[in-house]
Amino acid sequence: MCSSRQFLAASLLTLAPVLAAYAQPQSLDQVVVTATRSERPVSESLADVTTIEADEIARAGAASVPELLRALGGVEISHNGGSAGLAGVFVRGTKTSQTVILVDGVRLENPTSATANLETLPLAAIDRIEIVRGPMSSLYGSGAMGGVIQIFTRQGSGAPRPFVSAAAGSRGTAQLQAGVSGASGATRYSLAASVDRTGGWDVTFPYSGSYQQDRDGNGRRSLTGSLSHSFGHGWEAGASLLVSDGHARYDDAWSTPDSARFEYRTSALSTFLRGRPSERWQTELRLGQTRIDYDYDAFSYSPRTASTTLTWQNSIALPVGSLLLGAEQLRQTIEGEGLTTGPYAYLRDSRRTDSVFAGYELGIDRHLLRLQLRRDRIETAGSETSGTVAWGYRLTPQWLARASWASAFRAPTFDDLYNPFGSNPDLRPERSRGGELALEYRAGPTLFKATAFSSRIDDAIELDATWTPRNIDSARVDGLTLEGRHRIGAWTLRGAATLQNPRGERFDPVGGDLVSGQLARRAKRHASLGIDWQPGALRLGAELVAQGRRRDSNDEAMAGYGLLALTAGYRLSQELDLFARLDNVGDRAYETAWGYASQPRTLLVGFNWRPR
User: Which residues form the TonB-dependent receptor-like beta-barrel domain (predicted)?
Assistant: First the structure.
């Protein structure tokens, strides 16, 4: 169990970077996109933003995107099964369907459940991840109540560069990736393929009703590519593609160890044309489609889902401030056995959302003001308006104080409205409003952030005792997140700690009564602490992730836990780098979803080869 003393220690160590902050020189700001839908320095985003760059992904040696995200402040992860089991992402105490996932600017979402299946995406395809915490419906519409996570795939630049990486580890784990990226004149390109597999482990505990005594492995193949061409005068066109095919075994009460297997395909295609009609006007047209498909061996269920997005966005520099104007159309469709064919078809197989959005930004002396407004018209769910007001004040070049207030919403899903087994056509959208206060310090390698947040969700959608979705009164999350990073010589210290009170109402699965309490799978406290030492070619690191007690949706208690991971690397040359990661060093038996066993002690070793 993660004790209060352990959690307090991690929280206090997170503050350590502040002690040496004033001695650090100022550096150029990192540029982010997701917080404002346009490239802005992170210190001017007026939002709680974290980025994970390609070199950080490579050094981490994580097995999946959810595993990579679990050490971030304000983010919690759950897993129903092995590394390919359904993953939940809880941002600032909101549930998985209340966070929007984007791949290269296009929404990745299963319309039936409003989840994105992050566990199916290969880390080998990712160049950068941006995480924005807090309500973002004023820019991204339905579902952006807890935040937005955007994944950027690899893009080419510079001279042609091939790359190869390979790894092997516990329980028959093997990974291989190869590709090439670069540029030729005005054309940029990138192409990569990867394969990985593992024999897995027994993903359920004996007390679970889904228990099967077996090993639940998985395998995956992926292909990613991008191509773009610059036509001069600020105009560029391009496209990117990600396709991930895989299979996984699981445990449940309705299958046998031989039949408990499914296959999946996740894909994302994004095309764009952008340019400058004038010196003050930048425009972009983006068309993309994401798909999430499944086939189950044990029963006739083969969903095919698609989300197609068309966006026209314009940034205009005004004599005073700047203006953002855009229009967006989202069309979501479902088909396949168990959805549109068979004896129990859904009552509707498509839905369209038409949206317009606008933003205004003004900087005066040390003040920065941002206003955002969006209107969404959703078939069968009505129209919703959401907005954001954010203000920042530059105390010094390094220190920023900021405050914001925002509203957000989430429309009912296809499962909520059209599922033949207990849908509810009278559901209202979930609506939230919330604010945050923050103090940030950024200088060179040093970062410190303290963010206090509060949000209230009205008309929250929950399943009653008959598995029918209902609107209930409200849910509320109040909390504080501390995040820090500092470098001293060859040492880098980083950490995050979140104290929150995620509470709300839900239906008792036994009695059917409406009860109040802590929201399912979310802890009142969670933290991480990492330390890295790199005096030269050698690199050593350690990371501790801790989470407090939680309850699952069936009201079963789950104990707190602390996990230690160790990493090592050695650069043999400018082109060749060796790495190793030992996860769950103490071989702790723990669960993030009741009855499901999380990853035991795991060793992974490999190499990265990339000519300079």
Answer: 182-585
Contact 240, 104 (CB under 8 A): yes
Burial of 394 (0-12, 13-18, 19+ CB in 10 A): middle
Spatial distance between the Cα atoms of 484 and 73, rounded to a whole number of angstroms: 10
Which candidate, 243, 5, 183, 203, places its Cα nearest to that of 85?
203
For the chain, state the CA radius of gyration: 23
How many C-beta neighbours within 10 Å does residue 383 have? 11
- Mind listing the domains of the chain with CATH numbers? 4-609 (2.40.170.20)
Helices assigned H by DSSP within 61-196: 65-69, 137-140
pLDDT attached to residue 23: 34
Q: Are 360 and 110 in contact (CB under 8 A)?
A: no
pLDDT digits (tens, 9 = 90+) for 533-570: 999 999 999 999 999 999 998 889 999 999 999 999 99
pLDDT digits (tens, 9 = 90+) for 149-195: 999 998 888 889 999 999 999 999 999 999 999 999 999 999 999 99
Task: Give the residue ranges of DSSP H helices in 172-232.
Answer: none
Between 236-245, 248-257, 406-415, 488-497, the lowest mean confidence (pLDDT) is in 248-257
Report yes or no: 389 and 404 within 8 Å, Cβ to Cβ: yes
Place of tokens 């940029």: 188
Mean pLDDT for the stretch of residues 349-368: 96
**For residue 433, which amino acid is it?**
R
525, 74 Cβ separation under 8 angstroms: no
Whether residue 26 has pLDDT greater than 70: no
DSSP 48-100: EEEEEEHHHHHHH--SSHHHHHTTSTTEEEEEESSTTSEEEEEETT--GGGEE
Determine the length of the chain.
612
Convert 284-343 into a string of H (helix), E (strand) and C (coil).
EEEEEEEEEEEEECCCCCCCEEEEEEEEEEEEEECCCCEEEEEEEEEEEEEECECCCECC
Query: In 3D, which of 299, 310, 220 has the Cα closest to residue 266?
Result: 220
Residue 16 identity: A
Q: Left if phi > 0, otherwise alpha if psi is -120 to 50, otherwise beta: which for 258?
A: alpha
| Chain segment 396-423, per-residue pLDDT in tens | 999 999 999 999 999 999 999 999 888 8
Contact partners, residue 476, CB within 8 Å, separation at least 6: 454, 455, 456, 457, 501, 502, 503, 504
- Chain-wide mean pLDDT for the chain? 90
Share in percent of the chain as helix, strand, coil (round to 5): 10, 60, 35
Confidence of residue 463 (pLDDT cuts 50, 70, 90): confident
Residue found under tokens 């509060």: 454
Residue keyed to tokens 């959302």 = 353
Q: For residue range 184-232, list pLDDT tens digits in order.
A: 999 999 999 999 999 989 999 999 988 998 899 999 999 999 999 999 8
Q: Minimal CA–CA distance to 126: which of 174, 54, 219?
A: 54
Looking at the DSSP bridge assignments, the partners of residue 437 are: 403, 452
